[in-house]
Design brief:
The protein has 120 residues and is of the alpha+beta class. Helices cover 46% and strands 21% of the residues. A 4-stranded mixed β-sheet has the order 1-2-3-4, with helices on both faces.
Length: 120
């Protein structure tokens, strides 16, 4: 059953989220598949690459030194997820730089989760 919270968040995306989604959608970012406003446990991730367990968050000023965000990130990390955060103004002013940072995070995550001894 679809999460009504996630559906509402998809309908009311911020300008920064829309800009970032235009970079991430339809495997546009180096072929990586992302989902937007994806429920994970009790939380909804702005963008999630399920295959690499990477969450990308677009944050406004309300997230500056936010204790709830720290708790959320810790919970997600315990579930095996890695969270990268970008300020909204950074996404709007430098989408190419943000995209590059996301690809680097995906490559780091891939090397961490890769089996060092693949089957022959």
């Amino acid at each position: 059953m679809p999460d009504p919270r996630a559906r509402q968040l998809r309908r009311s995306m911020t300008d920064a989220e829309r800009r970032l989604w235009s970079v991430l959608r339809s495997r546009r970012l180096s072929g990586y598949k992302f989902r937007r406003q994806h429920p994970i446990g009790p939380f909804v991730a702005d963008f999630a690459c399920i295959g690499h367990k990477l969450i990308v968050e677009a944050d406004g000023g309300q997230h500056d030194d936010n204790a709830a965000d720290k708790h959320r990130t810790a919970w997600l990390a315990c579930q095996g997820w890695r969270v990268v955060r970008f300020w909204n103004n950074e996404i709007l002013a430098n989408p190419g730089g943000v995209a590059l940072a996301i690809v680097q995070a995906l490559e780091e995550t891939s090397s961490i989760t890769a089996d060092p001894h693949p089957p022959a």
